[in-house]
Specification:
Elements lengths: L3 E6 L11 H9 L4 E8 L5 E3 L44 H11 L2 E6 L6 H15 L8 E5 L2 H10 L5 E5 L8 H8 L3 E4 L6 H9 L3 E4 L5 H9 L4 E4 L11 E2 L3
Parallel strand pairs: 1-2, 1-9, 1-10, 2-4, 4-5, 5-6, 6-7, 7-8, 8-9
Antiparallel strand pairs: 2-3
Helix pairs in contact: 3-4, 4-5
Bound molecules: SN-glycerol-3-phosphate and magnesium ion.
Length: 251
């Protein structure tokens, strides 16, 4: 068995605030060298690491970050909501994440959020992400994923060497998935875990695509998916899944 890669969802988000350098370091500290993370852009085009489209849930500010520039980043606190221990934790830029990956030997499944400002800003986001990833050490591994498959198709055309994965919620995984992945030029399908079957896993593999399932927190289910040959598992509690069949933390 090639082994099933564990990816810490938004970093090890039970140990440190999600999508922060501390959460990525916590993954490494617990033997997990793959993280899943989310990227969108500030109003000036700077790619930042954040899940929601608003600042409300995970920072000390409210509203949209589409109105902000890089000069505003030092005013954001992405840690206090989680614990006073993490007060002042910055919202990382993608540039900072790339530097961290290079320095620490971390690999990343980078989910590009479906930017809500339209075509021009979406294309700028794609180009800015590609430019930042050019600084990534060749030793590092990356997968680019998105629920926005049109965006992903354009990304793959502009950066054909980078592997990409189409994210699917179970309700959206229609029978045209193979056509969609081939049209995108995808390398992976990233299915929601719920209702994923051994038969579907086999079909996806036979069509030539890898599988990274999300978000899997139950050890029994993780073990089952690993035994089915799923390439990766994205988990909120990746640290608890280290013993599952075939699990690996590969540099
Ligand atoms: O990449 C898997 C997962 O992160 C997708 O959903 O909303 O947690 O970004 P979400
Ligand atoms: Mg995500």
């Amino acid at each position: 068995m090639a082994g099933c890669t564990l990816m810490a969802h938004r970093g090890l988000n039970t140990f440190a605030p999600e999508n922060t350098i501390s959460a990525f370091q916590a993954a490494l500290d617990n033997g997990i060298n793959w993280i899943e993370t989310d990227v969108d852009a500030l109003g000036d085009g700077t790619p930042i690491i954040i899940h929601d489209t608003s600042l409300d849930r995970t920072t000390n500010r409210a509203g949209s970050y589409y109105d902000l520039t890089a000069a505003d980043l030092p005013k954001l606190d992405a840690g206090s909501w989680f614990s006073p221990q993490f007060a002042g934790e910055p919202v990382p830029t993608l540039r900072q994440l790339v530097q961290f990956m290079n320095e620490k030997g971390l690999n990343a499944n980078i989910e590009i959020k479906s930017n809500e400002q339209g075509k021009k800003e979406t294309l700028r986001l794609i180009d800015n992400i590609i430019a930042e990833l050019e600084e990534l050490s060749p030793a590092r591994k990356v997968i680019i994923s998105s629920f926005n498959h049109v965006l992903l198709h354009i990304f793959k055309q502009r950066a054909p060497k980078l592997p990409v994965g189409c994210l699917y919620e179970t309700v959206a995984l229609y029978d045209d998935w193979k056509s969609m992945l081939e049209l995108v030029g995808a390398d992976y399908l990233h299915p929601e875990d719920n209702f994923l079957t051994a038969e579907r896993v086999k079909e996806i593999h036979q069509a030539g695509f890898g599988i990274n399932a999300w978000t899997v927190d139950d050890p029994g289910r993780a073990n089952q998916l690993a035994n089915w040959g799923v390439e990766g598992i994205i988990s909120n509690v990746a640290n608890t899944l280290m013993g599952i069949t075939g699990a690996k933390s590969e540099k």
